[in-house]
Design brief:
The chain is an alpha+beta fold. The protein starts with 7 loop residues before the first strand and ends with a helix. Strand 3 and strand 4 form a beta hairpin. Helices cover 59% and strands 12% of the residues. The model has no long low-confidence stretch (mean pLDDT 92). The chain has 6 helices and 4 strands, in the order E-E-H-H-H-H-E-E-H-H. Helix 1 crosses helix 5, helix 3 crosses helix 4 and helix 5 packs across helix 6. It has one domain: Arc Repressor Mutant, subunit A, CATH 1.10.10.
Length: 153
């Protein structure tokens, strides 16, 4: 437990780490696990930033600007990452049928296989967390995070 005076207090007044800091640690572990699994599956032309673009449910059909908002990085950074993915055959940026000036991301078959790998690694990380917590605590965590996600998104 942290004794940092800037940390939050639990209901009993005992200093504790902020929940955001703890969520970040868990998220970083999940991210590292996902990237390690992707690299082990042979996608050695990618880095963790490329894998980060695949937030659930995926990026197929999004405009690059929507993806930038979704993952919280600049449009320029997204376009740099998409350019790499496009050059390596994972996706195409095609004209948006609703607005010919805009582009839409479309996954290639290789990109869909990568997406399946990323989602599989995310599921595997979730199962490892469930095994650590046990069924009851995992169900509580999951339902609490679902509630918060609905409230904040």
């Amino acid at each position: 437990m942290s004794t940092d005076s800037r940390a939050g207090d639990d209901p009993g007044g005992v200093p504790t780490r902020y929940i955001g800091a703890m969520l970040r640690v868990v998220w970083q572990w999940v991210r590292d696990e996902m990237y390690a699994g992707v690299a082990a599956a042979g996608y050695d032309d990618l880095n963790a930033a490329h894998v980060d673009l695949w937030r659930y449910p995926g990026l197929d059909g999004l405009r690059p600007s929507q993806l930038a908002d979704h993952v919280g990085i600049t449009k320029q950074s997204v376009n740099d990452l998409l350019g790499h993915l496009e050059r390596h055959g994972y996706l195409e940026r095609v004209p948006d049928p609703a607005d010919g000036r805009a582009r839409v991301i479309r996954l290639t078959p290789r990109g869909r296989r990568l997406q399946e790998t990323i989602h599989g690694e995310a599921r595997a990380a979730q199962l490892r967390i469930a095994a650590i917590l046990g069924p009851r605590r995992f169900a509580q965590l999951h339902s609490s995070l679902e509630l918060l996600t609905e409230m904040f998104s």
